Amino acid sequence: MAAGSAIQIPSRLPLLLTHESVLLPGSTMRTSVDSPRNMQLVRSRLLKGTSLRSTIIGVIPNTSDPTSDCDDLPNLHRIGTAALAVQVVGSNWPKPHYTLLVTGLCRFQILQLLKEKPYPVAEVQQLDRLEQFTNGHKSEEELGELSEQFYKYAVQLVEMLDMSVPAVAKLRRLLDNLPREALPDILTSIIRTTNQEKLQILDAVRLEERFKMTIPLLVRQIEGLKLLQKTRKSKQDDDKRVVAIRPNRRISHGSITEDEEEEEDHDDVVMLEKKIRTSSMSEQALKVCLKELKRLKKMPQSMPEYALTRNYLELMVELPWNKSTKDRLEIRAARIVLDNDHYAMEKLKKRVLEYLAVRQLKHNLKGPILCFVGPPGVGKTSVGRSIAKTLGREFHRIALGGVCDQSDIRGHRRTYVGSMPGRIINGLKTVGVNNPVFLLDEVDKLAKSLQGDPAAALLEVLDPEQNHSFTDHYLNVAFDLSQVLFIATANTTATIPPALLDRMEVIQVPGYTQEEKIEIAHRHLIPKQLEQHGLTPQQIQIPQVTTSGIITRYTREAGVRALDRKLGAICRAVAVKVAEGQHKEAKPDHAEVGEGEDCKEHITEDAKPESISDTADLALPPEMPILIDFHALKDILGPPMYDMEVSERLSQPGVAIGLAWTPLGGEIMFVEASQMDGEGQLTLTGQLGDVMKESAHLAISWLRSNAKRYQLTNACGSFDLLDNTDIHLHFPAGAVTKDGPSAGVTIVTCLASLFSGRLVCSDVAMTGEITLRGLVLPVGGIKDKVLAAHRAGLKRIIIPQRNEKDLEEIAVHVRQELTFVLAGCLDEVLNAAFDGGFAVKGRLEHLNSKL
Ligand code: ADP
Question: Which ranges carry the Lon N-terminal domain (predicted)?
Fold first, then answer.
C-alpha cells in the first residue's frame, strides 16, 4: 500500500498507544492489546463500528498506555501512523486480551487531544500527502537522484538473496511496481532495524530526509550479507563444507550465543548433506533431496518452511531405502517356532507354512496377502508376530481400526502445516529395514469420511503389481514396498471393502474349544503371566479344574483374551501374598511346606486348606505353593459371572435355543414367544434386522398352514393360530442388533412349542434357514456355533443337512460329545427338538379314521 494514496483519513482519530514496536506506513503489524484504554478502543470502536471509517485508527508509537484508566495519559509521541485494523482476535487466556492486525496507511501528526477517556481521541493532520504536495515539485531533481540511489541499493540487497524463494522474487517485483516514495518505509520494516531506527524513520516527515536516513541502513545490511557470504565461501574452500546462508537479520544483533547457535546449525546442515550423499536412496529421491537441501541452505531459519524442509530431509535420510534383514527361512524351523508359540490352530499353521514354503522356493513375495479372520483373542496377531520371528524379520503392527482418512495411509502433502508421512512410511522408519512384516490389524474396521477412503489407499499398498513404486504424498517420491510382507487381520469379512478383500486370501481362525483353551492356558498363558508377575511355579499352582472353572464360569468368549486377563488377576493377587510372605521370611515356617504339597490333590469345592482365602491371616507367611482352588477363585475374581442356566430357561413352552454367529464368535440365543388375546398381530422385539423379521413371518406362515397336521391350536382352540390372538416373539440381549436367516428353525420350534404346549428339550440347540415349503437351507459359521453350544453344555445340535461337510472342521473330541441331527426339512427339526418326537403321522391317521 502506498503512503499518501487516495485514502483520506478522518480528521479525528481514536488513538492506539503502543510501545513495543513501531508501525510504518505500508507495513503490517500484529500487536497485543490488554491495557484498559486500548481494550476500550477495540471494544467500543472496532468491534461495534460498521463502516470502513470506523476501522481506521491512529497508532501512536513509543507511548505506553497506563495500566489503570484512572492514571493520566503520558506524553503522546507527536507523530503516529494511521492504520486500518484488519483483524481482531480475542482470547481470555491467560488474561482477557485482543490481538490486532493493523496495516499502516500514512503518517499523521497530533494537533490536539480531544478526549482521554474511555480511549484517547485526537484531532490530527495527515502528513504524507502534504509532503508530496508541497515539497514534491520543488526538489524533484534532488529527490530523483536520492531515490535512484536508494532504489539501486534496494535492488542490490534483494538480489543478494535467493531469488528462488517465492517471497524474495515477489519483493523484487514490488521494488519496481511500488511508488518510490513508499520504498523507505517498506524496506525499513523488512530489513533488520531497531525500534529506535524505525521511530526515526517515522519521525522523518520530509521524504528527502527519509531517503537519506534509510540508505545507511540498507548499506549496513548489504555489508553484513557480504561478510556472511565471504565466511561461507572460505569455509567451503577449506574443507568443502557447505554453509547455509543465514538470515541477514542476525548480523546487526548477533550476540555470542547466537553465533554459536548459528555455527551449530551450519554443522547440522553439513551433516545432513553428508548423510544424504552417502545414503542409498533412489536416484529420483536423491535428486529431490539435493534440490530441497539447496533451498534449505538459502532459507532464513525463522521461516516455518525451514523446519518443514529439514524434517523432510531427515526423514528421507532415515528411511531404509536399501537396508534389509537377511531372511533365514527354513521350513522345518518355522514349523517348530509356530508349534512352540501356538497350541492348536492346525489349519492356520498349515496354510502359513505353505505360504512360507512357496516364498522360500520362489524368492519373491508376489502373491495374495494373507488375511486372518476370526473372533478377538484367538491369536491372529500373535501368529503374525511368529511369522516375523520365523523369517528373522522385523515386525510392525499398524492398527487400522477407525482410520477414516486416506492421508493416514498415504501421508499429507507437504503444503499442509503439520503434514506428516502416512503409517506405512512411518512404520518403515520405525523398523529401519525395508523388508519387515507389517500386520495390518483390523482391516474390517476401516471407516470412510470426507477425507477420502483409506481402503482405496490400501489397495495400492497391497497390490504386488503396484507397490514397488508406492508414492506417499509427504515423500512425493516412490518407495519400493515390494519386499514388505503384509498380513491382515479382521473379525469379519462382511465389512472389508470388496476390492480390498479381492487382494487377500482369507484364512478363517475359529474360536477354541474348552479343552483347547485349557491347554493354551497351561502351555502359554500361565507361564507368561507368572513371568510377568515375577512368580515361579513353586509359588503358585493353578490346577486344570480351576482353569476349566474360570473358562466356564468367568468367561464366555471364543478366544482366550478374557481368560488371560483373569489369570493375570489371579497372579496379581498371589504376588501380593508372596510379597507379604517374603517380608516376614525372617522366621520361615518350614513345617507348612509339606502340608501344602499334600493338599494339591484336594481340589474339590470344599477342599480349601491353604487356599488364598485362608492366607488372609497375615500373621503367618503363606504356604508355598499357593493353590488356586474354587474358594480362592471366588475370593479373587468375585462370584461366578455365568451360570449354566440353560435348563432353567426351558422350563415352560415357547422357548427354544438358537445358535448365532457374531464377529466375536458363536453364541447361543434364546428365542421366546408368548400369545395373548388380540387381532392377529405379530410383535418382534430384540433389535432385529429385516432378514430376521422375514424369517419370523415365514415361520408363522408355515405353522399356520401346517397347524392342522400338527394339531397346533391357539389359546382360543382355533387352528388359525392368529385368530383373535397376538403373538410376541422376543430375542433376548435386546441391545445387540441381530440379523440373518439362520434363526428360522429356532423360531418355528419355539412357536411349535408355544402352540402345542410341549417343552423343547433343554439340551437342544439349532440353526438353519427355512423356506415357505418347510425346507431347511444351509447357513454359515457352523464351527463357531457348534463350539458355542458345546461351551454352554448343550448335547444335541440340529443343523441343516447340507452343512454336514462343515462338521469335519470340528475337533473329534467335541464331535464325540455332541449328537448332530442333520435336518433337510422342518418335520425333522421338530422331531429332534421335542422329547419323543413331534411326529404327527400316528395322530393324523387316528384323526382320519375318526373322521
Ligand atoms: P487377536 O489378534 O486374534 O485378537 P491375539 O493374537 O492378540 O489375538 O491373542 C491374544 C493372546 O492370546 C495372546 O497373548 C496370544 O499369545 C494368546 N493366544 C491366542 N491363541 C493362542 C494359541 N493358540 N496358543 C498360544 N497362545 C495363544
Answer: 13-222
Closest ligand 1 atom number to CA of residue 489? 2
In this predicted structure, what is the pLDDT of residue 445?
87
State residue 452 phi and psi, 5-degree precision. Answer: 95, 170
493 C-alpha to center of ligand 1: Å?
A: 20
Rounded distance from Cα 568 to ligand 1 centre (Å): 14
DSSP state for residue 126 in the 8-state scheme: E
Question: What gap in Å lies between CA 782 and CA 165, rounded to an integer?
Answer: 66
Q: Is the dihedral of CA 517, 521, 523, 528 positive or negative?
A: positive
**Amino acid in position 445:** K
Whose CA is closest to atom 25 on ligand 1? 342
Residue nearest to atom 15 of ligand 1 (CA): 379
Task: Classify domain 512-579+622-643 at the CATH class level.
Answer: mainly alpha
Binding-site residue numbers for ATP are: 374-381
Quote the cell numbers at residue 384.
503374525
Q: Please, which residues have CB within 8 angstroms of residue 126's CB and are 6 or more apart in sequence?
A: 8, 9, 82, 106, 107, 108
Which residues, judged by CB distance below 6 Å to any ligand atom, belong to the binding site of ligand 1? Answer: 342-345, 376-382, 489, 520, 524, 559-561, 564
Q: Which residues contact 94 (CB under 8 A, 6 or more apart)?
A: none
pLDDT computed for residue 61 by the predictor: 92
Residues that constitute the known binding site: 374-381
Closest to 832 measured CA to CA, from 744, 760, 758: 760
Q: Where does the pLDDT of residue 234 fall: very low under 50, low under 70, confident under 90, or very high at 90 and above?
A: low
Beta-carbon neighbour count of residue 565 at 10 Å? 15
**Interval 311-337: pLDDT, tens:** 899 999 989 988 888 887 788 888 898
Of 560, 563, 565, 784, the one to substitute when testing ligand 1's pocket (max ligand atoms within 8 A of C-beta) is 560
**Residue of 378, 514, 528 with the most ligand 1 atoms within 8 Å of its CB, for mutation:** 378
How far is Cα of residue 710 from the mean position of the Cα atoms in its chain?
Answer: 57
Distance 807 CA to ligand 1 centre (A): 24
pLDDT tens across 662-715, in order? 777 788 888 899 988 888 888 998 888 888 889 999 999 999 998 888 888 888
Ligand 1, residue 372: give the atom nearest the CA.
Answer: 3
Nearest C-alpha to atom 9 of ligand 1 is from which residue? Answer: 379
For ligand 1, the distance from its centroid to the CA atom of residue 378, given in whole angstroms, is 5
User: What does CATH list as the number for 12-129?
Assistant: 2.30.130.40
- Work out the end-to-end distance of the chain between its first and last CA atoms, rounded to an integer number of angstroms: 110
Q: Is there a catalytic annotation at residue 756? A: no
**3 state DSSP class of 510:** coil
The CATH topology of domain 655-833 is: Ribosomal Protein S5; domain 2 (3.30.230)
Cα-trace Rg, the chain: 41
How is the chain split into domains, by residue range? 12-129, 143-225, 279-318, 331-508, 512-579+622-643, 655-833
CB 280 within 8 A of CB 321: yes
pLDDT for 35-44, tens place per residue? 889 999 998 8
CB 370 within 8 A of CB 504: yes
Surface-to-core class of residue 4, CB atoms within 10 Å of its CB (0-12 exposed, 13-18 middle, 19+ buried): buried
Residue type, 630: F
The rounded percent of the chain whose pLDDT value lies above 90 is: 24
Residue of 608, 742, 753, 783 marked catalytic: 742
The answer to whether 492 touches 663, Cβ cutoff 8 Å, is yes
Residue nearest ligand 1's atom 18 by CA: 379
Q: Which CATH architecture has domain 331-508?
A: 3-Layer(aba) Sandwich (3.40)
Q: Any catalytic annotation for residue 280?
A: no
Q: How far is the CA of 383 from the centre of ligand 1 (A)?
A: 8
